[in-house]
């Protein structure tokens, strides 16, 4: 009997959208992983945590993935941001995916530094 592949969803902002576009452009199927995995990428430029509450399509699945990797939070950092609020919101999304959607494993990526010319003033100091 054939074993079903591990379903992996990679969700996030423009970093993930660019990864998906690069993979498509370079004809990289399934991130070059073997058939034990089935990878889908859901990336949306400018995605903020608050947008997920009224644009739930990015978190809606016909069949729950086994593993979900989240790369979120960078677009939420502003000069008046409260880091604990951003972290709490990310954890709430991870809990929703695990407890509400049924994702077995939810991984949260580290907030990544952006190049100074593509970020607001002080971004890398607050997000570093």
From TrEMBL:
InterPro entries: SGNH_hydro_sf. SUPFAM superfamilies: SGNH hydrolase (SSF52266). Gene3D superfamilies: SGNH hydrolase. This is SGNH hydrolase-type esterase domain-containing protein. The lineage of its organism: Eukaryota, Metazoa, Spiralia, Lophotrochozoa, Mollusca.
């Amino acid at each position: 009997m054939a074993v079903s592949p591990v379903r992996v969803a990679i969700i996030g902002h423009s970093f993930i959208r660019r990864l998906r576009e690069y993979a498509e452009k370079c004809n990289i199927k399934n991130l070059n992983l073997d058939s034990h995995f089935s990878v889908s990428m859901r990336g949306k430029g400018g995605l903020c945590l608050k947008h997920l509450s009224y644009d739930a399509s990015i978190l809606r699945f016909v069949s729950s993935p086994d593993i979900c990797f989240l790369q979120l939070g960078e677009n939420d950092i502003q000069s008046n941001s409260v880091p604990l609020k951003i972290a709490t919101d990310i954890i709430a999304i991870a809990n929703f995916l695990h407890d509400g959607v049924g994702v077995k494993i939810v991984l949260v990526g580290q907030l990544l530094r952006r190049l100074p010319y593509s970020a607001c003033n002080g971004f890398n100091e607050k997000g570093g």
